[in-house]
Amino acid sequence: MASQSRPKVLMFDIGGVCVVSPFQAILDYEVQHGIPKGYINFSIRELTPNGAWHKLERGEIPNDANYFRMFKADLQRPDLWAKFHQKSNNSNPPPVPDIDAETLYWTMMSMSRSPDPYMYPALKKLKASGQYKLAALSNTTIFPEGHEFNKIGPDDVRNFFEIFVSSAHVGMRKPNRDIYEYALEQIRQKWGRDIRNEDIVFLDDIGENLKMAKSLGIRTIRVLLGRSQEAVKELEKVTGLSLLEDGEPRARL
Predict the structure, then answer these.
(1) Which residues on adjacent β-strands are paired with residue 219?
(2) Burial grade of 184 (CB within 10 A; 0-12, 13-18, 19 or more)
(3) pLDDT in tens, 137-171
(4) How far apart are CA 232 and CA 221, in angstroms?
């Protein structure tokens, strides 16, 4: 990617990229409660696109007690529990675990309030440079009215972006093609019809989301769990800017 021309637009996922990954909260919950690692994400993926989680991320259902009942039921489906264990040739799995879906959800949301220690400072430098257009494309949920997480403070990551495409507000979610096309149209409306897909670099932590972006000709950087520093180094190569904090090892430009 370093040999390609510099992009015009940098488009970021939020959770697991700009802020701490909610996947870490899922992993912590599984470890704490003796649930096999990967089961919760497996069950969510298996119910795509019609699980409670996906409906919430498209803004189709309210974030209320009924949602948590639906989410809990999804996570505790005996057929999914059996299917997960079949992958490891376990034909006699233990009983389906009791999962507190509401506690899990709010732990995920709380954890993803914390800025990523490498990407957040990089965003500050990118914004200050004025050299790149900054957009966000994120699967989101809408918090209940009056909830403290609705407040946008001066250090909120959302302040970095002139365009913020939120799945729950537009009724679409990644990795469906329609939300990428929507984001591309927003970018061209704001910054010019001459912006090509290959002028955009998209950062995400989920392979499926990046695969769809690539299929549209968008350049991509994957942010691996706990390894965001590597992604910032890739951004340095792409942008030609020094983005790591002083004292951090830098990529050769």
Answers:
(1) 201
(2) buried
(3) 999 999 999 999 999 999 999 999 999 999 999 99
(4) 9
Residue type for 135, please?
A: A
Give tens-digit pLDDT for 55-71.
999 999 999 999 999 99
Report angle CA 25, 26, 28 to the nearest 5 degrees: 65
Q: Where are the domains positioned within the chain?
A: 9-20+115-239, 22-111
Alpha helices in the chain (DSSP H): 22-32, 39-46, 52-57, 65-75, 78-86, 101-111, 119-129, 167-170, 177-191, 207-215, 228-239
Give the C-alpha separation, 97 to 94, whole Å.
8
Place of tokens 């704001």: 190
Protein fold of 22-111: DNA polymerase; domain 1 (1.10.150)
**H or E segment at 59?**
none
Per-residue pLDDT tens for 87-128? Answer: 888 888 999 999 999 999 999 999 999 999 999 999 999 999
pTM: 0.93
Type of residue at 3: S
**Topology of domain 9-20+115-239, CATH:** Rossmann fold (3.40.50)
Name the amino acid, one letter, at 38: G
Cα end-to-end distance, the chain, whole Å: 12
